[in-house]
Amino acid sequence: MKILVTGGAGFIGSNFVLYMLQEHPTYDIINVDALTYAGNLENLKSIESNIRHTFIQADIADVQQMENIFAQGIDVVVNFAAESHVDRSILSPDVFVRTNVMGTQVLLDAAKKYQITKFLQVSTDEVYGSLGPTGLFTEETPLMPNSPYSASKAGGDLLVRAYHETFGLPVNITRCSNNYGPFQFPEKLIPLIIARALNNEAIPVYGDGLNIRDWLYVEDHCRAIDLVMHQGRSGEVYNIGGNNERTNIHIVETVLEQLGKPASLIQYVQDRLGHDRRYGIDPTKLQTELGWKPVHHFETGIKETINWYLNHQDWMARVQSGAYQDDVKLQYGKQVGDSDV
Ligand code: NAD
Ligand code: TDX
């Protein structure tokens, strides 16, 4: 089986590539990533010489590049490639539409032309919008995205659905809650807290800090995608989440406490525009149909994650200094604009 993983140098994509190579000793992975500021080849160092993994720097919105890759023969596509940070989408929505909507459409066209056996779209619970104090997102919850990021993800999802309905393309869409774990870019809440706290810098908490996110360890997300890829019923959406809702302030206090840093580092700042109040996933369909359940509990998962960052301060330092992109310049001669970082 030859799997095309897009966005496999990012946070979840790189964890997925490592997971799949270990879990499926006969599979080959073609890993396609544009290496934006969020793509980091250092996440893939441990598989540098693994002949079952091929890395190609390419843009999913580039028709010719995708054509060349699909022509090599691909069985399954798992599309992680995306602009993924809500705050950036508020500043520059255009690149989100280009990658998350147009890039998805380019992949779908190639998948249709080359008759792949499954197209799995990695989406997010944010497409459902914001929850009130009660209730959970099910697969039937109407899409009501509130940020340019979530709107662009919803646009991609709708195209995936349409290619299934119109052309019979075998697809699945997964919608997962917030992930945490190794290799997450430190613009996202948990690695941001760790990075700033280690430097004794203030931790910005948006608004009143009482917004709620439903946290899942990244490996549990990867295991769910593996299951859906193999056993998901074509055309179906599967929500992924571990029933682990926490307020942001709880997350900040937990991480600071475990790092032995004072709560005085917490600094309440202006709220994010359009800030969704609460996300909560109902994972019943995935559990009952495919037998998935999370292995990692938050209490241990967050400790392991903090330890990972403490043990990989070189990784963090190279991300923060921008040095992680030097590999790209060396290997691909591509100019990665400093303004991207
Ligand atoms: P990330 O930003 O860490 O990684 C995204 C990767 O996509 C990067 O390596 C980047 O270089 C690549 N990329 C961006 N534009 C590209 C393009 N045009 N062509 C090819 N590659 C491109 O994101 P992540 O957190 O790993 O998220 C991966 C996917 O999972 C996204 O689709 C995101 O919407 C979804 N998701 C993320 C979370 C989360 O908590 N992080 C939760 C649910 C769903
Ligand atoms: O400095 C911060 N202070 C703060 O209070 C940052 C970066 C975030 N926050 C808040 C905003 C959110 O309520 O913390 C919460 C989590 O923020 P992010 O890490 O930016 O994640 P979120 O906006 O919830 O989106 C994430 O989960 C769903 C991913 O970035 C998305 O790609 C995914 O789809």
Tell me which ligands are bound. nicotinamide-adenine-dinucleotide, thymidine-5'-diphospho-beta-D-xylose
Annotation field: number of helices: 12
Q: Give the strand order, joined by hyphens, for the main sheet.
A: 3-2-1-4-5-6-10
| Mean pLDDT score | 96
What's the oligomerization state?
single chain
- Characterize the overall form: globular
Number of beta strands: 12
Which bin fits the share of residues in helices? 40-55%
Low-confidence stretches: 334-341
CATH class of the domain at 2-180 and 215-240, anyone?
Alpha Beta
Structural class: alpha/beta
H/E element sequence: EHEEHEHHEHEEHEEHEEHEHHHH
In CATH terms, the superfamily of the domain at 2-180 and 215-240 is: NAD(P)-binding Rossmann-like Domain
Give a short account of the largest sheet.
Answer: 7 strands, parallel
If you consult CATH, what is the topology of the domain at 2-180 and 215-240? Answer: Rossmann fold
The fraction of residues in strands falls at 15-25%
Calculate the terminal CA-CA distance, rounded to whole Å.
35 Å
CATH architectural arrangement of the domain at 2-180 and 215-240: 3-Layer(aba) Sandwich
What is the rounded Rg? 19 Å
Keywords: Lyase, NAD
Domain NAD(P)-binding: 4-305
GO biological process, one term: nucleotide-sugar metabolic process
Protein name: dTDP-glucose 4,6-dehydratase
